[in-house]
Amino acid sequence: MAYDRPWKSFEEQLALLKARGMVVTDDTAAQDYLERVGYYRLSAYWYPFRVFETVNHDRHGRPITQATDRFVPDTQFVDAVRLYLFDKELRLRLTDALERIEIALRVDIAYLLGERDAFAHLHRDTFHPSFARRRFGRDPRDSFEKWQARCLDMERRSKEDFVKHYRQKHGPRLPIWVAVETWDFGTLSQLFAMMKVPDQQRIARKYGVPDWEVFQSWLRSLNYLRNVCAHHSRLWNRNVIDQPKLPELGTLPWCDEFHDQPQLIARPFLLLSIVRHMTKVVCPNTGWHRRLQAHLVTFSAQHAQRQLSLDDMGAPQGWQQWWSA
User: Fold this and answer.
1) What is residue 131's predicted lDDT score, i.e. its pLDDT?
2) Which of 105, 98, 119 is nearest to 203 (CA)?
3) What proportion of the chain, given as a percentage, has pLDDT over 90?
């Protein structure tokens, strides 16, 4: 298929938006954003203001819609910019908390496994046989073999002085409390998924989650969230691909707000709530969650006739009543 969309200058991009019905009150400022942020990145933030038309119906009679090139009346360029800036600040604040959680989990896992064997992470019998032997697709390697390859690759690529120093003094194999400092969140999450259930339960309970399977799903989802933040991707109304599980009703009262609400579980506010919960465990005196709340409530009204809100993030009704506790 031949690509038929030509290159456009910044002036032409702005003219195109105006032709499609977007109100631009300051051409100089709008063009400056197009030059610094880019049309394509900003398009994710004006997408919700596009006019949607019904093109078909599914087997249940529900309409199937498709976005047109037109914008709903009164959509202003500044509406998309404010949404972009809100989302940028949201990702920055989450990155701060995710760093604290990741570092704490490194300590938790290295301390638990390292007590038994400094090189526990290199031995298959450290892990649950069923979880470690899982295979996916056509890859002949099981989970443990793939994790080992990833782990060793991250160690080899590390430029940290402490890695070089340790190898010069003690040899090529890194004990778990050293190796863990070279891993990313995904590697850490995968290791947790292979651990034996009693070990998983021990760490999960530290974070107030009695169900290890729930906690395992939280780590997968937080890794997904971390990748979104690290790649500067749109977050605020994203459809979450790797959705977390919830503990049984009554286990964690704030989680009850999301039970039997698939439309909320599919949105990022639940992930923000998990970050809040875990950050408070890692740093009991933290004010991070209140600072994030202060940012969330700055979500501004738009000029467009279609109004967006924190509801589009999956925020349950009355969330502020428990968030700041």
Assistant:
1) 82
2) 105
3) 80
Decide: 259 and 245 in contact? Cβ < 8 Å: no
Q: How would DSSP label each residue in 242-259?
A: SPPP-PPTTSSGGGGGGT
Q: Strand, coil or helix: what is 97?
A: helix
- Return d(Cα 75, Cα 71) in angstroms, integer: 6
Q: What is the mean pLDDT of residues 18-34?
A: 97
pLDDT class for 64, splitting at 50, 70, 90? confident
The whole-angstrom distance between residue 168's C-alpha and the CA centroid of its chain comes to 37
Give tens-digit pLDDT for 130-164.
Answer: 888 888 888 888 999 999 999 989 888 888 888 88
Q: Could you give the 3-state DSSP secondary structure of residue 41? A: helix
**CA angle (184 as vertex; 210, 291 as ends), nearest 5:** 65
- CB atoms < 10 A from the CB of 182, how many? 20
Closest CA to 76 of 44, 46, 33, 32: 46
Bridge partners (DSSP) listed for residue 137? none
Buried b (16+ CB within 10 A) or exposed e, 255-269: bbbbeeeeebbebbb
Query: CA–CA separation, 124 vs 115, rounded Å?
Result: 16
pLDDT at 204: 97
Please, are residues 83 and 236 in contact by the beta-carbon 8 Å criterion?
A: yes
Alpha carbon separation from 174 to 75, 90, 146, 193 (Å, rounded):
56, 36, 18, 21
pTM, rounded to two decimals: 0.92
Q: What are phi and psi of 11, to 5 degrees?
A: -65, -40
